[in-house]
Amino acid sequence: MYDFDMIVIGSGPSGRRAAVQSAKIGKSVLVIEKGRRVGGVSVHTGTIPSKTLRETVLNLSGWRERGFYGRSYRVKQDIGAGDLMARLHKTLDHEVDVLEHQFARNAVKTARGEARFLDPHTIEVAGEGGEIETVTGAHVLIACGTRPFRPDYVPFNGMSVFDSDEIVDLPKLPRSLAVIGAGVIGVEYATIFSALDVAVTLIEPRATFLDFIDKELIDEFVHELRDRNVALRLGAAVTSIGLDPDERPVCKLADGRTVQSDMLLFAAGRVGATDRLNLDAAGLAVDHRGRIAVEPKTLQTAVPHIYAAGDVIGFPSLASTSMEQGRVAACHAFGLEPPPPPEFFPYGIYSVPEMSTVGMSEEEVRRREIPYECGIARFRETSRGHIMGLNNGMMKMIFSVKTRRLLGVHIVGEGATELIHIGQAVLNLKGTIDYFIENTFNYPTLAEAYKIAGLDAWNRLPRV
């Protein structure tokens, strides 16, 4: 009856995982990608580019060695935009090559063009040259992702005012940068540029930011930002954005202050890239941010054979969770019952320093009225920390007083996004503080912080 068993709109993390999963069980699959190359936002303007830029900056700036050699130390004295772009393009080429090979060996077909629903099972694909192809699918997964929110009052020009997709192609490095929006994207880019000794001002209308992260971790993070002269303008809404005669952005804030900088990054949210899908023809609607509502366990939309996954469905909008959502949607579409997802998954924020968290924050434990105790470890307390020249970085672990079980792990500092997986495993396996006390960790490693924090908490727990 249909041309394909599964049609996937978008080739980002959720789209590629759904396509490959469907192909693995013998289904015919078509992936529609409107970009010139597969990979979606994650590969071309989002996850991979921002993390590649971060790694390049840390390497060329000598950031990781400054604990030994001083703040003026640099591997390369004059770092330009071209230095950042060279590594970025090489990484993206590799990512695309790997993905294209993955599709080829699993017999996943691809079509380049813009998708548009004609009815719930029929999709029109419009190519760049004006050619039109119509395909039908028994099942459809919408994995089109998001694009930056671009309000009319922001004078985007691609030279001094950028959104979060454009910033990866910046023409030159600024001497000063204003970032509007202290969400994950804004914080990551603000700290990456700060590591290049760019004067950064981070503007956020709310009095707090990254509220899903443990407050003590944020306090530690803010302390380090202030130590690096990152200016924080919290609780200050932007009333207007203009350009001076030299095309430099000028932001006026509600509290009367003005922020003038060489460049401006507007990173205050993203919207679902659904406006050109003609979702009405499929019987679907979106919210004010262009996002599609789904049934959380199956990823089904209001139309049962149409699924949606990834950033287009909203929180948590992580590449890691998007991949799993794509797999779950494909399994459900073809009658496979995937195992229930683990209770806890980690968040990773690739700022400088990076942050990662899994499980409950101290604020959440308090709201649930669970008797608890915390253990803290500073990276400078580990031999590995001394070897690396780390002056900052901490791990916080939360344990139940009643059951001694681990409730949450929160890390800020070098290697946080890698270290978190030890805590994730113990947490999902319902492990207790005894694991950290009794087990041996490689020496010298930053993972020793688990034992230090565990012992710190054990000293505070009431004796049985």
From TrEMBL:
GO terms for molecular function: dihydrolipoyl dehydrogenase (NADH) activity; flavin adenine dinucleotide binding; NAD(P)+ transhydrogenase (Si-specific) activity. NAD(+) binds at G181, A182, G183, V184, I185, G186, V187, E188, E204, G269. Belongs to the class-I pyridine nucleotide-disulfide oxidoreductase family. One of its GO terms (cellular component) is cytosol. Residues 4-326 form the FAD/NAD(P)-binding domain. It is found in: Cytoplasm. This is Soluble pyridine nucleotide transhydrogenase. Binds 1 FAD per subunit. It comes from the Bacteria.
